[in-house]
Protein 1
Amino acid sequence: MMAMGWCVVWVLVMMGTTFDRRQRIVEIRREMERLNSKLYLQNCYIMQENEKLRKKAQLLNQENQALLSELKQRLNKSNNNNSPNHDPNNIPDLNLCSSSSNPNASSSNKR
């Protein structure tokens, strides 16, 4: 009789352990799904921020190209004005050129 009781207890313990393992696996899967969803949302947010930064970088690059072009034009104009008296120590004053050719010149300095 004592042996019979031990077997029943052992079967109940094993069934309980199996149930606990399955329950733990279900909990782990839920936790993994929750973390996966959280990481997915973070990834979406990062991709949105990257797109915003990419657009800002593109606009800054365009602005830099426009400023470089304006600088080259001013240097060429200054060199043309000073070509008869070419002095290598003479540094052209870029502020002498009219800023009306670039209406954004004053606004770009106000950042």
Note: The chain has two helices and no strands.
Protein 2
Amino acid sequence: MKEVWRLPEVSSLNGMDKEWVLKLLDGRSELERMRILMTLWRIWHVRNEIVHDKPTPPVESSRSFLCRYVESLATIKYCLGADDVKGKHPVAEQLEGCLQPRKTKPVIVDAASSWSKPVADTVKLNVDGSFSEATGSGGAGMVLRDDTGAVIVSACRYIPSCSSPLEAELVACREGVALARQWSNKSCTMEVDSREAVKMINSLEMDRSSLAFTVQDIKDLLKLDPRFQAVAIDRFNNQASHLLANLGRSKA
């Protein structure tokens, strides 16, 4: 990990007492503390895999996972207002500018535009897709809530082959609809922060794009329950599924 992150020397742990973790983190920046804790967490995970006679994860796999996971967390915290491609932050190239809080005017989200509960006796599904142009992969995140706002189920998926942010959104829609049908038989509104994806799903015409099969899969699922509807929302209303989508993308 020291090839990509600035981490303390192992020798600095010599002579430390039982509070070594607190002393190791003391005086370091928030980002440095997060990287150290995530590295320790991954070491413990690999140790457990070995103890339980499971295959040892390759070092490169652990490094890639940690970089993507921390990237997702840092992006959510520091880059919420950054310019991007429909909310899909590019991976390594633009992250460095997001690792420290921006000294610009803070992003203010109007309370009137925040996430709202579904109407009584219905459920609401929020989905989002995440795309990495560098790897040609993506992630899908979905959250299903009842009319009190309580989470019924949440999930994320890794998309090993993905061509665009739009495809990531559509795959997230397909996975989300299938999940919602398994967990609830109530009328459901699916909220998506991609107007193009919603337009394709709701169109009565045959889709002739390269994503036609995915769109048709979604339409076929929706035909099974005419009460299911897809609507477009602002990305600020979709933060939970956005975080899950980034997490799903990091599961490579």
Note: DSSP finds eight helices and five strands in the chain.
